[in-house]
Amino acid sequence: MKNKVFIISFISFGAALLSLFILSMSLLTSINIDEELKKIANVDNNDQGLQNFLQTLRPQINNKLDLAYLIMGIESLGAMLKIHSLVVVIFVLVNAFLLPMVGVIFGTFSIIFIAMIILSRIRREFKFNYVRISSKISFLAISGIFLVLTIVGVTLLSIIESSYNGGNGEVSKYLDKINNNTLHNCFDYVTAYKFATPGKMFSLMLNGISDTKLDFGSNIINNNTFKSAISICIVVLPIIGILMVLSGSFWTATFITSTRNQHSKFYYWLKNVRIDSKREFVRSLLKDYWFWISLIVFISTIIFPGFIHPYKTKIQILITVINAILIPVCFIPLIYAWSRILKIRRFNYNKMMFIQILLFTILIIFNQLILWILFREEMHKPIWVSLSWPFITITLSVICLIGFVQKKQ
């Protein structure tokens, strides 16, 4: 079966998505919205303002999915574990984190699969090359637009976050008590304001924070700045991101599509360059600059924020331990290759190095998403760091993977 690795991955993510959906449905009956809001209010029974604030949010929480998004938005994972039961924490993580993430991955695989079916029907080489070049140019152009808009969005969100964290506003005080922390992510505030307005996110984009009727403290952010930031981050960037995934998926499909009842060029490329001596292996490794760039990026993400953060809570110590474990795990392909050489057995260098850089890329993506989303409060970093650092490292890791394939081919 051609492209069996891709097909197996596609089916696996589909099965994972279905399993998460079934798990979510099975937990629905165990969730009580009013009971969970009461638990949040109980972090300070003497604060009537916090209880009143949660009551103003209640009309906008129309279902249990809304509750999951609220909890994910205003609480870190550490706060969730302290306030809610394990069942509720699992429900929140499944619906507000794992399902969207796995859904995006499965959607990307689905687009690539459809593109492969379309491309496999193309018989003329010049048409195939036209699709490859046009999808590559489209992907690079859209990626450039996405980069510019991301910089604009991060800048606006940083302005908003610094104003709210320094303004001693109403929501800031409540977030201090919920998370036992004084520095909060901008998305914590956006989530709180979203559920404080009747029209939720649509109202925030149209009217900004004027409909929330909350006390914003001494540093009141310009309403137009808030609306611009929300519009860019919630509407424009996702649309550009979808277009980027579409063009990137077609470009990826041109590498792995089997044409004229033969394996793809990528398949034969993976089988190329066989090595069976230490000298060849070391020489190839030293000349492979994409590997070294990818390695530096990976180590950088392990050091920060894996090792560089406050060591005040058990969760922060756990973060360090997990990142330390990742270091030997990520070098399994290289260790395997070295063991083959010691036994004087040949192995495919391109295949081994592709898997190695791919493993770096996957670990960087998941590590950064988990740390900066689930543990954002424990990191104690401003939003420009929590957005720009993962964006830079993930982008560099993907460039290294593409660059390695392009250079070798």
What does this structure look like?
77% of the residues lie in helices and 1% in strands. It is mainly alpha-helical. The protein has a domain at 271-409. Helix 1 packs antiparallel against helix 6 (86-120) and helix 17 packs antiparallel against helix 19 (383-408). The longest helix is centred in the middle third of the chain and has 42 residues, at 125-166. The chain starts with a helix and ends with a helix. The model has no long low-confidence stretch (mean pLDDT 87). InterPro entries: EAL_dom. This is Motility-associated protein Scm1.
Widest sheet: strand order?
1-2
DSSP strand tally: 2
Structural class, by secondary structure, is: mainly alpha
Report Rg.
24 Å
Report the end-to-end length measured between terminal Cα atoms. 23 Å
What is the number of helices?
19
Could you describe the largest sheet, including whether it forms a barrel? 2 strands, antiparallel
User: What percent of residues are in strands?
Assistant: under 5%
Can you give me a brief rundown of this structure?
The chain is mainly alpha-helical and 409 residues long. Helices cover 77% and strands 1% of the residues.
